[in-house]
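Continuing from the previous page of notes. For each protein in this section, the sequence appears first, followed by its structure tokens. Read the first protein now.
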Amino acid sequence: MLFNSIDFAIFLPVVAILYWTVFSKGGVKLRNAFLLVCSYFFYGMWDWRFLGLLIFSSTVDYVLGRLIGGTADGERTKRKFLLALSLVVNLGILGFFKYANFFIDSVEGLFTFFGTELSVSSMNIILPVGISFYTFQSLSYIIDVYKKEVEPAKDIVAFLTFISFFPQLVAGPIERASHLLPQFNDIKKFDYEKAREGITEVFIGLFKKMVIADRLAVYVDSVFQNAAEGGTAEIAGFPSVLGLIFFAFQLYIDFSAYSQIAIGTAKILGFNLSTNFRRPYLSRSFNNFWERWHISLSQWMRDYIFIPLGGSRHGRSRTVRNLLVVFAVSGLWHGASWNFVIWGIINALFVIVLDPLLSRLKVKGLPASMIVFAMWTFSLAFFRAEGFDAALSVIGSMGFGNIGRIADFGLGWNEMVFSLLLLTVLMSFEYVAEGMERKGNNILNVLVFSRSCVLRWGFYFVLVFSIILFGVYATNNDNSFIYFQF
């Protein structure tokens, strides 16, 4: 079920109304049971066959969490075995569904490289939606229980709801048990202001997704399709540059829109989810960029891979190695392709090499932000292209010629100007929001929630009608969120 669908437009109000009325008097356990059923229904709308996989993996971790929590301090071997069992089950399921064909193709390619033909048929495996997200969320719980940083969940319904909570189930944020799980034990009362903020966040996310990101997708898809088909002459010059820039904004706006809708949906139900984006395109270093981009995944990689490997505690060479490992794993988490591994390693090199260089040259402010954005955008050629050759085609086609052809890739001149205007307004909004946040203010509170009733409702109506009038609804355009494929 897509957030930007009629199904969800019906589903969410029905769930919220029932949650705050019929199930408000039944206690926490009944509410959690209701949310669990709703979450399973939400997930089952994608493919009921994979619902059993979600239930199985989360039930296994509930049982293993209880067993780990029940071990004595001296039973280290047993605790390690139970942790290893969870890792094998979770990573085994993720590895089979996401990486089996990647492994087969890589082995076959390696034999071919050394002059031996190895013919192995790929398997017809469908990737369960959201599997990377809920697997990492469940693993963080088990690891934290093992490290005695959280108590094992006793209520199986609360735990299963924590893993499958529908606002963030499919594409995050990847929540920690210490933050989200206790919220399922709270006795919540309806908060009008919180619900109002949640509804506003949902519609702002829908605006970003449907009006901006999906419009940019028309141009981006056309450019990269040409690259995949070998049509480098068509995209040569500025069209490929603009296609890559548009993808950088599409990726950010699309994914941050999902996170914003997820956070808003959770607020409507009285829950608080973690912030997943904090205006990353205003970053002045690559390290700062990863503190602002997909924050929940960045923190997961830091806490469960980088720090256990030694972090930055054992000298420069070990730090470099650890960063390369983390970014390579992050790339592979995004997709079963060497393109994603290359993308991850490129970004590791940005942190390792370019950050110290910018610091040494004392590049600050807007110039630093422009350099970070330009290099990040360059790396996205490997993230978006369908194969290594297509990525090189896009990079090799970049230049400043053929400006007159930029309207030949799905967006006419009027649509192009409108898209650029929307991006200008968005970045101006984020720049102002950044300044307000430094002073301890929230831009929505200042511009919307603190205003008179007339101005507030005027903003709401403009937002809703903008989505209706300017949203992209083309039937031949894939309007699903980009991160659903991961």
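Done with the first. The second protein uses the same format. Note its length before scrolling.
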Amino acid sequence: MFLTPKEIIDAYIAGTRNKAKMSTGTIIGKAILAGMMIAMGAASSSVAAHDIANVGLARLTAAVVFPVGLMMVVLLGAELFTGDCLMAVALPKKEITGKKFAGFLLLVYFGNMIGSVLLALLVYLSGQLDYSGGKLGAYTIKVALGKAVLSPEKGISSGILCNILVCAAVLMALAAKDVAGKILASFFVIMLFVTGGYEHCVANMYYIPAGLMAKMNPAYVEVAMNEYGLTADKLDMLNVQNMCIQNLIPVTIGNIIGGSLVVGLALYYLSGNHKDAKN
């Protein structure tokens, strides 16, 4: 047994009322946990994929591992920015104001970033990036660089595609009435997003800072130059400014559009929930 689309939206709106009542400290705390959980999935997926030459196979391998991060978020009640974009469904029924919605997302975004960067630091300090003679560190640099030079149109488009799938996974998990159903709903849809190589702002809060940290290690840089043909000029493009302007800003915009509009509000109206809205 599972909930219908209309029941899913009704259940999510009810959950949004509870989210709106949370204190600032609780929101940030749950967001930090979510950032760390997503980053754990990202870090482990890099371990799984870093020594696989075939791009499709590497992405598929990473996609089998990464979804565990969202499973933890869903089952443990953490707050993830991309999933919380769905709170827009409560706006038409006036269960939450636009100001409250924006403020909540901002706090969650801030908390997610703290958690993701903290996890990246712990991974770096743990020596995990030494795997395969430093090739994991080099791979981390390569992945981060690719994200730091992304064009705005690609970032927005890829962000939209990503959060269509992430929010679909969140709602499908909500539709399931048992743990097994929630896990399966989360796994396959998130596997699709990772295999497709779409951009997730919170995951990127791990990938790019991890690459920036790996770049500080000369041994990882040397392997990156030898294995991937990266030059000093290219490596200079991996910096905090490009992380924000070239990636996080456009990807976040895309994630908001994909989650709030394409999935959230579209499903709200298509499922007939708007007929019950308050006047």
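What the second structure shows: The chain is about 80% helix and 0% strand. The mean pLDDT is 95. We return to this in next week's lecture.
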